[in-house]
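User: Continuing from earlier, I have the next pair ready.

Assistant: Great, send them over.

User: Here they are, in order.

Assistant: Folding the first of the pair now:
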Amino acid sequence: MRVCMLTTSFPRFQGDYAGVFIFRFCRALSSLGVSVSVISPGDKGALPSEKMAGCNVYRFSYFIPKSWQVLAYGSGGIPSNLKKNPWLLFQIPFFLFAFIVKGYQVVKNADIVHAHWIYSGFIAWMLKEIHGTPFIVSLLGSDVRFAEKRLISRMLALWILKQATLITTVSQEFRTWAIEQGIPEDRVHRVLNGVDLSIRKAEENTSLKCRLLFVGNLVPEKGVRYLIEAMIKIFNSEKDVHLTFVGDGRERKKLQALVQKHGLDDAVDFVGAQSPDQVPIWMCQSDCLVLPSLAEGMPNVVLEAMACGLPVVASDLPGIREVVKEGETGFLLRTQDSNHLAEKLLEIVRNKPLRMRMGAKGRSLITEMELGWDQMAIRYQEVYQKVYDESVSVGRGRKKDA
């Protein structure tokens, strides 16, 4: 089976954090014998093509000079970049054209096109019209939120989904959403993200009562301001608690100023964006993951933390609710409520046996759900075969050696 991935974010070099989920997924597929090609945006210093983890990676340039190619990468990706720099809208036509051209060159050798993010599905549809290659679209979360905000975006998203041979979602919430938009149930499959099940937290000697961890982009949508406000309240009664922010973003300077203003410099660290291999190390050195987001799909960081044996304190959102069980694997929060966040974190901080039980329960749940990367790759391999067989049977695809 030959699969071509279309993605707006993929590692630009070894150890890059951009698109690491897609990278790990492709690596797992490749290990199963699937021939994987990846098409992604270029960036300053990134090679136009290379072999990564057994996959052929092709990057397209979409603007001159290359140093001005700033639409795709950075904290929050394309939506965040457009919000910060509206002038980047000018680059979108060039971006789409270059994406299609590169796709035309690569997809002719593929059996299946897999578009990550709804709007990559538009490129997949164009390539289907040219080459006749069936395509699937994966809903990741931010694309659904973006579609819900504007009528034109919503209309385009629904049109793309109706053209797709099959749709996958990272949560039941998004599967339900797609079905409510008129997509037949049998064309929408829920496939949860994969995680590394080989990493597990080991208890360490430490003088701190509790080590809290946030991993993600430092943007308003992640609710990071409420976490700092909660930390201010916690520090009034518990001094031996430490919070580490792993990630970067446009809120970082504001958050650091707030920390400094309230004298929390010794209690809060900002370590910036870390390589994908470093994130599990931070998790294994922590006692609890905190994610007070305003909106999420099925955040991989939650699954990774649970796989490491950490309890999770996160917003009470549909995707998160699928794995974080109140009082069992963590606590669910009211969004934008720093008082509630502080209350739940104090329970975690003051009750070590509780957080250890929650962490162990979360680890067991992830194992029971079979969320390893290889298991995820096997589920997708079955999806690809289904799409390929259907395409051949109705004469929409080109018969090839699978």
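And the other member of the pair:
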Amino acid sequence: MTEEQEPAPDIRRPSMADALIPLVALTILIAGSLALFGLDALDGPIQVGLLVCCAIAALIGLRNGHSWSAVQAAGQGALTSITSAIFILLAVGALIGTWNLSGTIPTLVYYGMHVLSPAVFYVATAVICGVVALSIGSSWTTAATVGVGLIGIAAVLGVSPAITAGAVISGAYLGDKTSPLSETTILTSQMVGVDLYTHIRSQIWTSVPAFLLAAVGFTVAGFVGPAPTHDAAYQDIELTKLGDIFWITPLNLLPLVLLAFLSIRKAPASLALLGSAIFAGIQATILQRDVVNGFIHEIGGHANPIVGSIQAVWKTMANGFQMNSGIADIDRLLSRGGMDSMLLTIWLIIAAVTFGALLEQLGLIDRLITPMIERARTRGRLYLTVFGFGFGLNVVAGDQYIALVLPSRMFRAEFAARGLAPQNLSRLAADSATVTSPLVPWNSCGAFMGAVLGVPTLSYAVFAFFNWLSPLLSVLYGFTGFKIVPTQRAADTEGAV
């Protein structure tokens, strides 16, 4: 070990109590905020609890000899890691607003209601989102675009928004984790050191069965779940109203086409989303003149039509679109968006990821994981440990990238020592970290999905069937040995025996 690599003599290794105190505090504060405020806890109380946990972790670090500058550096690193996520969130807020103004979302809802019946709506939603996410490689973009439209259709059909959100997320994460265009799929294969397509082929053995089982669940929910709250006559009224407010035409879907094109061309997600939002705003001033004029009047805009139109688009991107049609479901569907609608979510992500970064940089996570590895003596227990570590990091670190990178890095040598090929770990890491991230309300993915779909994470989590089944199958394979690939050396040894 070089002199630079040696730890400073005045920094003590954290004790097990040091590692557990912030987690106990997190549990108490999160549970307390949910008990006191219910689902409204995400509107600020949970963020406050997370920041208190950051302070507790920082105090433990100072007690163990870390300097305040080191604590600050850990927090700064956390903010750097989520810069792209913050810009994506702001761009999504702008996009939802202008897609409503331009008639893109109303058109998706209008056409979708003519094609999708309540009985098959949930399973169709999962399949549609799966195909879109596989094509563009992004669960976030899928949920923020097609997913928002499908949630709108659910509202008009009168079917469960929570089950619909679960179907959106199930399909989005199936496509994301099996697409060669997905950044998390690429990152996982790189971290573990396995070929990208070998990693994808390995994932298929858990992803496809899990999605088929989820599809069965959504089909059953469509037939025996909650009955639609709207009858056909009411749906006809809503369709007529949408047609009266907006000019419904396939041209309204051009912002979606542009976004798909930019995504396939691998444009940065934030730029693709913002570009589509601006394009939709410009298109609105041409195709939806009456809607734009009404919104200009509502915001007290300029009498000059050009200046007023600029104000309308700008205001929509900043604060969202507002509609007063007289039909509550349509108003709830369309009165959404704006960059400012994402600020609570950004606050949540900043607090959660900073807490996770402090736990990692101050050595608290490593203190917890080392005894877990030592106790995982069998392959099944090792798989269960990796899953617990990945899901646990989604809970305590609040970011899927931390939950994905750390297990991939920390268990790689252990898998090799036990004769397990790296694609076993890459599949398990993706199933444990990527797929479970939207199930945690304060995780960056859970917060994002709850914000863009307009359904609280705790409401849709139980219906995200794929996101539960995929990791369960992965752990089951570890215990049974099904589709477990040995390293070449281990295979040669078994053959010799």
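Worth noting for the second one:
The CA atoms of residues 180 and 186 lie 7 Å apart. Residues 84-338 form one domain.
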